[in-house]
Amino acid sequence: MLFKSIHKRFSIPFLLCVLFFGFSAHPLWGQTSDKKKFVVVLDAGHGGHDSGNRGNGYFEKNIALSIVLGVGKILEKDEGIKVIYTRKSDKFVKLVDRANIANKADADLFVSIHCDAFTSSKAFGAGTFVLGLHENQRNFEIAKRENSVIFYEEDYEKNYEGFDPNNPESVISLTLMQETYSNQSIEAAATIQKSFVTNLGRKDRTVKQAGFVVLKYTYMPSVLVETGFLTNSREGAYLNSTKGKTEMSNAIAKAIVNYKNELEKGVVSPQVYENNKAVQLQEDHSNIYFRVQLAASKKAINTRPQNFKGLEKVSLQKEGGYYKYYYGNSKSYKMIQKEQIKARRAGFKSAFIVSFKGNEKIKLSEALDALNSFRSAKKP
Questions:
Q1: Contact criterion met (CB below 8 Å) for 240 and 63
Q2: Residue-level pLDDT at 344
Q3: Beta-carbon count within 10 A of 18 CB
Q4: Starting from the edge strand earliest in sequence, which strands make up the sheet with 352-357, in order?
Q5: Are 194 and 180 in contact (CB under 8 A)?
């Protein structure tokens, strides 16, 4: 959370100053503030001249907006939650602008709400998605349909760096920036999915991964919800009804509150460590290092410089069904940031920093927390 907030708001020089000289002044490193609200950005899919899918004559944009406003109305009653909307009326908002709204708000959770469609009218059920590499054609088709919204934007080629919704290979680059928050995104999606099943008895379509542009540019846990299929006559009628929209709003709002509560239960504020604890921190610190992730692919690529825009000493590591390519390897976060800048200047615009503890990849926030705790323990 702390790193996420600083990273989004400030330049790299300022970030370095805060990381290495100013952490101790932040409330997370002393007394925690009970005034900090949990910020949720609610995103109603489509809008304006983009109607979304028109299954059985319904308007996805209108149903999504009604559900979002319903969710927001419930959450706004919670004093510990601040709600921000990407749209509260029937207007068109660019995908990248939706993400920017969440980033500027320093949001803790981004939830984008939609209605599904399929060639078969028999498909039904609510599903949740997080950003990832689609595992089947069906997930790719869902992402392609939602991503095609960019064609409504005159400057989409500039905004999305040549991304092509119709090209499966374009999706690989989408996953890089959100990887830091993937675990929390999955947890949030699972909580929403569970709420659909337990509170409404909806068919469990489980949490899935696919390449959604609207999730790529957010710097926080992010979930896309497909509330049901408008192409299914029974489900479409339900989602378009006051009863259906109210029930969906209640289920999503309840899930968000549950996710917030569970997340807060797991937060442990750093304490002042005794000497024996400092020894353990030193051991943990010595085992942490950083790399810059350049890309991912299904097929292994030779790591010679000519294949990576002249960058030398690129390493390859297989994770799951994909090969990931890393540049640099340092225990210093300051040094790895310089390597990231070098990688981006070479042409890897989406290059991002990842952290490891030994051979295990860990969240960047965990690594930075460990480094700061080690520094705090060293102070007299």
A1: yes
A2: 85
A3: 16
A4: 314-319, 322-330, 288-297, 352-357, 360-362
A5: no
Copy the structure tokens of residue 260.
């917030």
CA-based Rg of the chain, rounded to a whole angstrom?
A: 22
The superfamily (CATH) of domain 275-378 is Sporulation related repeat (3.30.70.1070)
201 has pLDDT over 60:
yes
Quick check: 341 and 12 in contact, CB under 8 A?
Answer: yes
* Mode of pairing for the β-strands spanning 81-85 and 38-44: parallel
Give tens-digit pLDDT for 107-146: 999 999 999 998 899 999 999 988 764 444 444 454 444 5
Angle at CA of residue 363, ends 357 and 366, nearest 5°? 75
CATH superfamily entry for domain 33-265: Zn-dependent exopeptidases (3.40.630.40)
Contact 38, 108 (CB under 8 A): yes
User: According to CATH, where is 3.30.70.1070 located in the chain?
Assistant: 275-378
Residues of the chain with CATH 3.40.630.40: 33-265
The verdict on pTM exceeding 0.85 is no
Contact 52, 59 (CB under 8 A): yes
Phi, psi at 160, each rounded to 5°: -120, 20
Q: Pick from 172, 216, 165: which is nearest to 323 by CA?
A: 172
HSE at residue 311, side-chain half, CA atoms within 13 A, is 26
Angle (nearest 5°) at CA 215 between 181 and 243: 105
